[in-house]
Amino acid sequence: ALTNAREQLGRRMAENSAQAQLLEGVADAFGLDTPPRRIEVYDNSHIMGTNAVGGMIVAGPDGFLKSQYRKFNIRTEEIGNDDFAMMREVLTRRFSRLLKEQAEVRGDEQNKDVQAWPDLVLIDGGQGQLSAAKTVLDELGLSDLPVAGIAKGPDRDAGREHFYVPGR
């Protein structure tokens, strides 16, 4: 049992070290002062303009946090396949809720029901999706929240993505 525990601890420490290096690289790539502790990634999907949904996944120092993933059923029926409008709805709902929760528990930092704020928001999409996201964040007074867009690269090859941040 002791040998198994030592091996498991060694694997866990190696994984944490690798994850820490990845997050340091993310901080460098996106000009963050410190490695992010919480990254929220957003994407939208629909079936030929119907059944539109938005998704949020969360990652941090311990890897992906599947218990914090969220699905947003798009409520605005006339959106169709307008990816920008879907992104605006999802982000407006998500961050309006965070702002509301923050206002309700001011001064109570230990409240476990309050969702954590992301250190970085990643949007699946290019300059257009990033612009839609930035507009929502600016309207909600969250202009200082780091946000970036990730567009698929040539031939949709993994590893050849294009990254967009406001202004570049």
Give the DSSP E fraction (strand runs of 2 or more residues).
Answer: 15-25%
**Uncertain runs:** none
Q: Which word captures the global form?
A: globular
Total strands: the figure is: 7
Q: What structural class is derived from the secondary structure elements?
A: alpha/beta
Number of helices: 3
Quote the average pLDDT: 86
Described by strand count, sense and barrel closure, the largest sheet is: 7 strands, mixed
What is the helix/strand order?
Answer: HEEEEHEHEE
Query: How much helix, percentage-wise, in residues?
Result: 25-40%
Kindly report how far apart the N and C termini lie.
53 Å
Radius of gyration: 18 Å
Topology:
Layout: H1 2-30, E1 39-47, E2 50-60, E3 63-64, E4 70-73, H2 83-104, E5 120-124, H3 127-139, E6 147-151, E7 162-164
Parallel strand pairs: 1-5, 5-6
Antiparallel strand pairs: 1-2, 2-3, 2-4, 6-7
Helix pairs in contact: 2-3
Structure characterization notes:
The protein has 168 residues and is α/β, with parallel strands linked by helices. It contains three helices and seven strands, in the order H-E-E-E-E-H-E-H-E-E. It has helices spanning 2-30, 83-104, 127-139; strands at 39-47, 50-60, 63-64, 70-73, 120-124, 147-151, 162-164. Strands 1, 2, 3, 4, 5, 6 and 7 form a seven-stranded mixed β-sheet that branches. The longest helix has 29 residues, at 2-30. The relative contact order is 0.13. The model has no long low-confidence stretch (mean pLDDT 86).
